[in-house]
Amino acid sequence: MKKKSKRYRAILKSKIKDKKIETKEIFDLVKKNSTTKFDESIDVSLRINLKQTKGGDLSLRTVVNLPNGSGKKNKVAVLCEADKLAEAKKAGADVVGSDDLLENIAAGKLNFTKLICTPSMMGKIGKHGKVLGPKGLMPNPKLGTVTTDIAKAVKDIKTGLVEIRNDKDGNLSSTIGRKSFSTEKLLENYNHFIDSVKKEKPDTIKGEFIKSMFITSTMGISFKVGAKK
Q1: pTM above 0.85, yes or no
Q2: Which of 89, 115, 122, 168 has the fewest CB atoms within 10 Å, counting from its CB?
Q3: Which domains does the chain have, with CATH numbers?
């Protein structure tokens, strides 16, 4: 049996039973438990109701623009026409290109974490879907990554736009900040995130849409929102 570290055993002591815990207190505890030297991410995990009354399961995939950003640094690439390369560079893209970028993608050189594409280039990038899709890099109009407004798309991703999607069991998660964020900023991001997810509930879903919520940090323990700890 693997032995728990001294740091982890100390963190476990914060799990006090038989006490109702408020969301603000959870963030205080999660931040307190973030005892590593790096700036741990603060994450929220949800279990949503997938079952629709009219048959089929819900597949939720959308983006949420956190008011205080996520603290995550994305390396943004823009695939566009040659005459828009200067615009993309001015917008703050880390990687820009046209046919040359397509060649790099074909060769597996994916030195970016987000890819923005102009509509006219989608016909060329489609055949690379098998490479980009599994890595979550395939541009999608619904996620704001296929657009003619390059400047807005780059700014949104750089300043806090996060993508969320559920798995087959109805689980979805997202980073909503870092331990260096104040509790107030984390709480504001969290409330905005939950409200955004609730707005995605279709009319064919009956009852509660969000079944459970947990908050944790990269190396910490999780706390269930609205439960006893």
Answers
A1: no
A2: 168
A3: 17-70+161-224 (3.30.190.20), 76-158 (3.40.50.790)
